[in-house]
Specification:
By secondary structure, the chain is of the alpha+beta class. The protein has helices spanning 16-31, 60-72, 78-88, 92-137, 155-182, 244-263, 282-288, 315-322, 325-331, 403-406, 449-454, 460-477, 493-515, 565-573, 642-649, 679-682, 718-739, and strands spanning 34-36, 55-57, 203-204, 269-271, 278-280, 300-311, 336-346, 356-364, 374-386, 389-396, 412-414, 417-423, 429-440, 523-525, 535-541, 550-561, 590-597, 605-611, 620-629, 632-641, 662-667, 698-709. It starts with 15 loop residues before the first helix and ends with a helix.
């Protein structure tokens, strides 16, 4: 596809060659229908004279029967060939040549796939070689960690370097303990920000909408916070070396447990009456499996769920995605806020990643400020069980094997979790996903505990629904043309791709603001008269060209809505009703100017909207992304100026379009009165405990990111924070009023 490398959706790191090979393989399988009936040299009868080429096209039924037989027996004997020729009405020689051609196709396909993988491995080794060459040009002292100095240095200087390295290590450990017990960085009170003159026009997003009108009045918040610079957090370095043999034993045990949990049914798994939820029978689980990563921490709650679904992606392509931290995070953008590979203990076989083993860090999120980000360090192993069948399993590292880092992951640990993958054909695969973890329930607000208990929080249903939606979106991107809505006139294919790439960045930024993950350094604010259910955080942006420079304020909260998820989603994305809740519409109707589909379903799209009355006179448009599936729904938008979007829609680079997103996340409806999840700790979930309220409402998260001041060193005022709090409250009240709910 022309310009495919520029799409960036579901990650610029996604190996699009994998999907391309899927199509080539499909074409190859069809090529077997054209059978050239010419035998090899030693199989021709010399008395017959020179061979004559004769083409014969098999019928679809014949091809289907031959392909089915080939899967079971690629090398049929004379008796089997005779039986096939009799059954299919073909000559035995035709059967023989068809199987020869099919084996040749299979061999060619495997060689091509192996060549691609070897090329990737060669590129990786070349990059490692370059890094080693660079390291040789900048040697490091093994004793003190500083740059090696050619020539002699004094004994006193050498001792000072060693002492400096020791003090740095001690400071990092003390900072880690402070983070754990105080809930904030140790350096938050070291360098207070100097007071600056404040021009506190509260500007949404790009600051061109004229909202606000606040001035310097109001007391400066006496917090002296050290705001982050918005840089992506680097993965934590290993503090101790890992015992590879011990990790291999843990990985092997975890793999065996996952396979059994994926394949076993009752009494290990109990289904609800409607069949939507599968819950784990804890008593049966403890009878079958024994703990191998240490005892369950005191006060922790267990959650476990299982889900099976078909995805539009080959098994090997999915395995490659799961074993690459960046592509894994991009496949699940609303679940994974950050992922990094800490150590690769084994890269596995070159062709199929069998027995690959690596140590990873990840932060898991639910789009609500009332749920703490779960940060987990775990080992991930991939095993190929047979042709077209893989299993990928995660399990937290036992605290006894990683005592230093166990203090950095205090609120969750991952029991054997992952997926069992079966190839169906070159395009589809069947995925059975198991999620099993233990977490501190005190870190979850009471309004969201039923969601976790039901398995729709961090559970398997959410992973599978997200994977299906993302694979459908990928299929749209890999098609010869990206489908658009009714309003796509004048936009090139490159422009649509650039628009989708911009929307991907907008959604990622929105999720970061809601969950306050470590992708950006957020500092929590506490202000009088602001509800405890509203989390207000702040950070500064200095270097990122994709956001306005200055102090950014984020506010988010979650509320229970007694309406269905679909009804709330349809209301929020409808441009005709937008004026009932959105202050950016200035009370007037909005119209959809451009719409680019991202998959099946009318609501899964990226659109550009403007005022239906003033047109583009105010020089401001609204970029919006929406989707809805079993895992929830999302409506994210950000004001953008007309000149910037003109560049994007003509295929220009979208990385320099400054935006700050706001919007809504809708989580599946589990009523606050639902208590079925208590059975996760004590036994199976009985059918009588599902009270039917799962469809009676939903959880709505409202979030705004606002540019408070264009001066990065400026301090916030209490008035600014109260204004944002009032904005959230008013928006929720307007939505409830429009839907006639309380």
């Amino acid at each position: 596809m022309d310009g495919l490398g520029e799409t960036g959706l579901i990650g610029e790191n996604f190996n699009q060659g994998l999907v391309g090979r899927m199509r080539e393989d499909d074409n190859e399988s069809r090529s077997g229908s054209d059978n050239l009936e010419v035998a090899s040299g030693d199989e021709q009868d010399a008395a017959d004279g020179p061979p004559k080429k004769k083409y014969h096209r098999h019928t679809p039924h014949q091809i289907q029967e031959l392909e089915s037989f080939f899967k079971d027996c690629p090398h049929p004997d004379d008796k089997q060939r005779t039986e096939l020729s009799r059954r299919l009405g073909l000559e035995s020689k035709q059967i023989k040549f068809w199987f020869q051609n099919r084996r040749t196709q299979m061999k060619t396909r495997m060689e091509r796939q192996e060549n691609v993988v070897l090329k990737q491995e060669n590129d990786r080794l070349r990059a490692e070689n370059d890094l080693l060459k660079q390291a040789m040009t900048n040697p490091i002292c093994n004793t003190c960690g500083g740059p090696a100095v050619l020539g002699e240095i004094s004994y006193e200087q050498h001792q000072l370097k060693i002492e400096n390295a020791r003090l740095k290590d001690e400071l990092s450990r003390i900072s880690a303990l402070t983070n754990k017990f105080l809930g904030r960085p140790l350096l938050s009170s070291v360098n207070p920000i100097p007071s600056q003159g404040l021009n506190s026009n509260l500007e949404l997003a790009v600051g061109r909408n004229g909202f606000g009108g606040l001035n310097d009045a109001g007391n400066t918040l006496p917090m002296g916070l050290e705001l982050g610079d918005g840089a992506t957090m680097k993965p934590m370095a290993n503090e101790i070396p890992y015992d590879k043999s011990a990790l291999l034993n843990v990985a092997s045990t975890a793999m065996d447990e996952l396979i059994k949990m994926a394949q076993m049914d009752s009494p290990l798994w109990i289904k609800s009456l409607d069949g939507r939820i599968e819950t784990l029978n804890q008593e049966e689980y403890r009878r079958i499996f024994s703990s191998f990563i240490g005892a369950k921490p005191s006060g922790y709650t267990t959650e476990a769920s299982r889900e099976t679904g078909m995805v539009y992606l080959s098994g090997f392509a999915l395995v490659e995605t799961l074993m690459d931290a960046n592509r894994w995070a991009e496949m699940f953008p609303c679940i994974i806020s950050r992922a990094a590979t800490i150590d690769v203990l084994s890269s596995g076989t070159v062709v199929n990643r069998d027995k690959a083993l690596q140590v990873m860090d990840a932060e898991f999120q639910v789009l609500s400020p009332m749920v703490s980000v779960r940060r987990v360090r775990f080992i991930r192993i991939c095993k190929r069980h047979s042709e077209g069948v893989w299993a990928v399993v995660d399990v937290s590292i036992d605290a006894s094997l990683d005592a230093a880092n166990s203090q950095m992951f205090p609120n969750c640990r991952r029991l054997p979790s992952g997926c069992f993958i079966q190839d169906i054909d070159n395009k589809y695969s069947k995925v059975t996903w198991v999620e099993h973890s233990e977490y501190d329930e005190n870190a979850v607000n009471h309004i969201l505990r039923p969601l976790f208990s039901s398995g729709f929080g961090f559970g398997a249903p959410r992973w599978v629904a997200t994977l299906q939606r993302q694979c459908d979106s990928l299929a749209v991107l890999m098609s010869p043309d990206i489908p658009g809505g009714d309003n796509t006139a004048g936009i090139t294919l490159a422009g649509r791709k650039s628009m989708l790439k911009l929307a991907q960045r907008m959604t990622s930024s929105f999720c970061s603001g809601v969950c306050a993950s470590s992708v950006h350094k957020w500092d929590r604010l506490t202000v009088r008269d602001v509800s405890e259910d509203v989390r207000v955080t702040t950070r500064k942006n200095i270097h990122d060209p994709g956001e306005p420079h200055g102090v950014v304020l984020s506010a988010a909260t979650s509320v229970w809505m007694p309406v269905t998820q679909q009804r709330l989603f349809d209301f929020l994305r409808d441009e005709r009703t937008r004026s009932q809740w959105d202050i950016l519409s200035n009370g007037g109707p909005m119209q959809e100017m451009v719409s680019v589909a991202k998959g099946p379903g009318h609501g899964n799209c990226v659109s550009l909207r403007g005022s239906a009355i003033n047109g583009n006179e105010n020089n401001m448009l609204i970029l919006q992304e929406t989707w809805c599936d079993a895992s929830g729904a999302l409506v994210v938008y950000a004001p953008v100026d007309v000149p910037s979007m003109s560049v994007v829609m003509s295929g220009g680079d979208s990385a320099y379009v400054a935006l700050l997103p706001s919007g809504f996340a809708v989580l599946p409806g589990i009523s606050p009165s639902y208590h079925g999840g208590q059975s996760y700790s004590n036994g199976p979930l009985g059918s009588h405990e599902v009270d039917g309220s799962i469809n009676g409402g939903c959880l709505l998260t409202v979030a705004f990111q606002i540019l408070v001041n264009s001066v990065p060193t400026a301090k916030l005022t209490e008035e600014s924070v109260r204004t944002v709090d009032n904005l959230i409250s008013c928006t929720i009240q307007k939505i409830k009023a429009a839907l006639a709910v309380t």
